[in-house]
Amino acid sequence: MIKEVRSENDWEAYIREHSPVALFQSWSWGEIVEKAWRLGNFSEDKLTSVAQVAKIDARRGRFLHIRHGPILSSWDRESLSIWVDYFISLAKKERANFIRMSPLIPNTEYNERLFKDFHFRPSPIHAMDGEYCWVLNVDKSEEELLSGMRKTTRYLIRQAEKIGVKIEKSKNPKDLEDFMTLYEMTASRHGFTKHTGIVDEFMEFLKKDQILLFKGYFDKKLLSAALILFYNNQAVYHHSASVDQKIPVNYLLQWEAIKEARKRNKKIYNFWGIAPTDRKTHPWYGLSLFKKGFGGHSLEYMHAHDLPVNRKYLITLAVESFRKIKKRY
Question: Strands, E, within 204-316: which ranges?
Fold first, then answer.
């Protein structure tokens, strides 16, 4: 039986056991979303699966978004069918055009076939929400981590220290003003769509000491900044911004963030999304090269899938397909 989950402790305990990296299914993320349902499938009062569902009103149409979810203890046809039926009913009630799901499950033929059997189709968007990401196991000594880096990356970290780059950590909401200024500049320079709700995200995760703002200075000038989230067993490099310059501030900033993850006893440092190809024309090629220099390995989850509820989905299909081609993803 699917019903609302009211206990944050029960919700988070289930996520920790079955999908600890599912950031967008966290209770705190649900507090940021304008309209969301926290739902659980219960069997004799025991949670067997959960889904945090957001209602999104986009210019291309309304849809239900289950980011990093649903989270199931068993991915089989029977377990998924219960949720699909519920989502379809909810979508029709809320007049949504389609349902978008992106659970963090392996990108296997079995899972692809399972979704296809329920008439889902791959979303016409690029890989996002960390579905293709670069991760580093930080359960090692600092010496081991440094030795596992690309030689150039290791050199630039030491060079930044040598020339006097300073990294500061902050929990002060007032410091977000500096970050947002840099963020606006970065978005304009690279032409990416800006995330909304960054301030709300900072304030919500700050309540549980799960976020830090890292700021990189050289010659007393702020050149780089990043927001790092700490959730369950991982640290997530979630948002960043910088001035276009050649000082290796970003390298030292990442190293300090990695050391903070170790200090908090995290097992994984998640660099978040990378280009799913080595094609040099991909918008994330340079950023991916930077992230890979710190050592680690890629993780690939199944791509987001859409379930059309009515014919208006064709508008989304056309618009997002065009955007993906235009931006060279």
Answer: 211-218, 221-231, 234-242, 268-273, 297-300, 305-308
